[in-house]
Amino acid sequence: MSAPLDLPKWADTVLVPAISVVAAFLVAGLVVLAIGENPLTATRYLLQGSLGTGEGLGFTLFYMTDFIFVGLAVAVAYHAGLFNIGGEGQATLAGLGIALVLNNLTFLPGFLLIPLGILGAAAFGAAWAAVPGYLQAKRGSHIVITTIMFNWLASVLIVYLLVNVLREPQSMNPETRAFPEQSYIPFMHDVFAAFGVEIPTSQLNLTLVLALAASYFVWLLIYRSRLGYAIRVVGSNPTAAVYAGISPARIIIIAMVLSGALAGGLAVNELMGYQHRLLLEFTSGYGFVGIAVALMGRAHPVGIILASLLFGILYQGGAELAFEQPAITRDMVVVIGGIIILFAGALDGLFRRAVAHLFARQKLARA
Amino acid sequence: MSPAIELIAINKSFGAVHANKDVNLSVERGTIHGIVGENGAGKSTLMSILYGFYEADSGEIRVNGNPIAIRSPNDAIRAGIGMVHQHFMLVEPLSVVDNVMLGAEGGAMLRAGEAKVRAELARLARDYGLEIDVDATVGDLSVGLQQRVEILKALYRGADILILDEPTAVLTPPEADALFGLLRSLKEQGKTVILITHKLREIMAITDRVSVMRRGEMVATLKTASTSPPELAELMVGRRVLLRVEKAEKVPGAPLLEVENLSVVDARGVLRVANASFTVRAGEIVGIAGVAGNGQSELLEAIAGMRRPSLGSIRLEGKTIHSSEHNPHRMRELGLLHVPEDRLRMGLVPAFPAFESAILGFSHEPHLGRGPILDHDRLIADLAKKMEQYDVRPPAPRLKSSKFSGGNQQKIVLAREIERNPKVLLVGQPTRGVDIGAIEFIHRRLIALRDAGVAILLVSVELDEIMNLSDRILTMCGGKITGERKAAETNEQDLGLLMAGVTDEAA
């Protein structure tokens, strides 16, 4: 019998992650100190660059949108007991889906393009995740291995298609032609301007609203729906699922399909919201950030939104920091991100245990 | 002469749980001392402290009158204390000699150590009648013999005081008798034995003195000869309990569950159930007696539709179940409900709040929500009501399923299945890890169901329970049904032989 790890909900979901973040920043501060820079100045640049200006905030929220989608994708699979680390490949394929829909269905009325583009992203992302899901469910091929392989497949497939098939003949760049303009998801600054409110220009677009809606949908699905119930039974106790007449194989495939569709949101934000064309490596490794986001957010949509905001701050603020303090390179910022992931993910148990002990002792003292 | 073991004012807490409160225990040398108590009473914690797995928060341990500190099992072994765990700590692919030597090799090279082990095992066989094939692979030995290896391990390490934790849980009655014979001969040779069990019959049969624990406290230490099972049960629970629930004679009705030539082959290709045929009628409890691992689990799972039988057929209310509808979902719809053997792996989801575990297997029922969404308020209210009827403590539907005690978890599972008005109820190990008070409650419920005309198939490794509840008893051994008896016309010896595979034809 090990000491019980009983924590009030607020401590579990807020206090422990907060301690992890603070500890991560302290260690990251030591790293900054070690390369001869002032950690306090660095922190100031980081926060000012990400939250201090309207423009910076816009970029932070843009990144946050990406992270929410990939975080939710990882979380849904995680609830079914699956470690989907193929968000990168699923988002890449979702981008292909967007490009195929938007550049081929131009004869349709313009207002249909946005929903169809989103559906195309979801469908392609889902299909790309369904294959590893099927292999796991029916053949027992480990989902971690297959999703990694599918990331590589996606990345070479997209290079081949952009270089040989989808590239505009006169262009030297491996990218498609621009999407039709009616398919652009409106920038937030344009939306606000339509209501006569002036906000700074940034990449932030209405996909953020979609991301928040998706978070609510995932919460409803996982914690309130019959399907989510079945997903959690399979993830938490597969034998009980068999007893209950829930088919784990079916649930695994469904969860992966949903996961892949959510990963497609990354492509929606990046391509339909900002780039307006399909290009190479638009996913920028964010699919992997989704793993950290989901871990840190404890696979709960609220936690994922908060963790996405944190990583948004880190990515936007980090870019500013690298710009202002050249000694701190982008790679350094990646290191800091890595430290946070290490503390929030891997070392999470360390603080949880300590906090649980504190609470137990307090309870005992009161009793 | 000072006692072999003295525990004085032992305290141990895990977080907010006070597992041992000022526990005192004195075990006389050369006696067999029983420790009884319900699950969670603190028996295992106390023995773990004695064996060095945990350190007490306060208190003193004396061995043969000398105060000593036991910080690890190594300290305990040095003090002459040996332990035989309920779940054996053996390396199955290794031989008996290797297992005994493991951890006591006596150097980098094995040859000298091995010679010593062989000599010592020969001596132990001579002195205590602990015969065993020392070169046999442990995995090939019967459970009873594996337990013997555990005892040999402890004796080889010089144990004078032997702690046995629920040693008969995995044994057939004849094996248990052999074990008791062995314990008596150990006692005659001056060894001290501490026996942890929840079977009062064993306490009465073999111990000299018995200590009762309840809620972390030592409530009594008695001479076995001057106490009785009802008295011990009352001390364990803290109130009077009925050890045997009365049931009226009843003429069973129509056959509701008919199993014919059912065979089950597991994923590894091993035949688990061989050609089982039997009938359970309305208003009848049919018990399946057998030592754990003889195919009962697979039989239940196959009937419930969790496993595909390789041969045979099942009829419910006279209708043959087609293999396409032989799945847990459809069987539930047809009125065959199932209280599974393993609560924590099947009966509920430990990480879920209780109200979610309380719909496991039924989450598709339309009245539990609107469309695809479950109505949590309703689930919580439903469970709150059931918790009151079934006296689940604490009556907290939102509490995590794993936080309830075994008995209360079982009541949650039982309530879920019974409230859906089964025609046939499969019940596996209904009282495993359940406290005596709850056992009485569960037994009453099962008998009430039987009286209401439900056909109940009961699997249990507790022979008492089978004999108490069943109208008819089937015995299983090695996947085969080895015999059938009317409960009123059999006894433990008779069943024990059948469970050991001595069939009627052979006898």
UniProtKB/TrEMBL annotation, chain A:
Pfam families: BPD_transp_2
Keyword Membrane assigned: yes
The entry's keywords: Cell membrane, Membrane, Transmembrane, Transmembrane helix
Coiled coil stretches, renumbered: none
Subcellular localization, as worded in the UniProt entry: Cell membrane
Topology term for the membrane: Multi-pass membrane protein
InterPro entries: ABC_transp_permease
Annotated TM spans: 14-35, 56-78, 110-131, 143-163, 204-222, 252-274, 286-313, 333-351
Stated name of the protein: ABC transporter permease
Automatic annotation (TrEMBL), chain B:
SMART domains: AAA
Domain ABC transporter: 5-240, 257-503
Gene3D superfamilies: P-loop containing nucleotide triphosphate hydrolases
SUPFAM superfamilies: P-loop containing nucleoside triphosphate hydrolases
GO molecular function terms noted in the UniProt entry: ATP binding
InterPro entries in the record: AAA+_ATPase, ABC_carbohydrate_import_ATPase, ABC_transporter-like_ATP-bd, ABC_transporter-like_CS, P-loop_NTPase
Source species, domain of life: Bacteria
Keyword Protein biosynthesis: no
Keywords: ATP-binding, Nucleotide-binding
Coiled-coil zones: none
UniProt family annotation: Belongs to the ABC transporter superfamily.
Listed name of the protein: ATP-binding cassette domain-containing protein
Organism (species): Microvirga arsenatis
Lineage of origin: Bacteria, Pseudomonadati, Pseudomonadota, Alphaproteobacteria, Hyphomicrobiales
